[in-house]
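Deliverable D5.2: sample structural annotation.
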Amino acid sequence: MNWNEITVNVSVADVETASAIANMTVPYGIYIEDYSDLEQSAWDIAHIDLIDEELISKDRNIAKIHIYIPEEENVTESIAFLGQRLEHEKIGYKVETVKVSDKDWNENWKRFFVPTEIGEKLAIVPSWETYDNVSGRKILSIDPGAAFGTGTHATTSLCLELLENYVTEGSKMLDVGCGSGILAVASALLGAKEALGVDIDSVAVKVAKENAEINAVSNRVKFEVGDLTKTVIGKYNVICANIVADAIIMLSKDIKTFFAPDAVYIVSGIIDIRADEVKEALIGYGLKIIEERKKDNWYAFVLKEC
């Protein structure tokens, strides 16, 4: 498979907002080059202060946001969307596009996927990396594949931090729009007795099953292809939907059908400009917000039935 790589060059000061806009363009396949804090990042990640000359020479004032779109999709529409949103936010930018092969895609983003600690209990570790687990965290080993994110984006890390607080021994967990399966797998590592992930994309489900196997939780985590109302049965203690605002509004109308007594519903993937709209819709469905978190330009809410 071949890809269109869109590179958006913005000021480091604008990278958080610009990356949030970029993540609205595609639900997968973005990475960010930001060398503004290179020395500290190198120490935090690798505990070294010897840095390659090529990295030292990078422009510290410019961040590069890389977006990957399958070659059969309309790259012109994506660039137009990006331009409109960036201009609305008064962000100066420069866009470059090139075609890359699947091999090039993998090699590019793997350079920027490093072990990352999430919350108090988890560490996300690429399947090809090692991690010195000095603090005894639960290790979530993941190989996202060429079409799915690493789990370190703000929307997913918000969900993972919240799962730490709400998944208990014996929980039943449901992940709506599971993607690479990271939330369902993490729930099993945190003690859930069973987890189900559902996604309309068969490739996503294939990758998710592989990640369950990598983490030795296949006996407690299952993944199915399909949509929520036609695929899922049963009641769940913890339900997650880390998708986009419109999908959350649409799916949440009937989500209480799947609530076990005292269930919690965690939603994320909500950009700040849509947060109030999503809140209003969820409250209108008879749900109440019991916790709210924000990271960068993204929101996550925890809800219960009124």
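Annotation notes: The longest helix spans residues 75-88. The CA atoms of residues 142 and 156 lie 13 Å apart.
The annotation will be released with the project's public dataset once the embargo ends.
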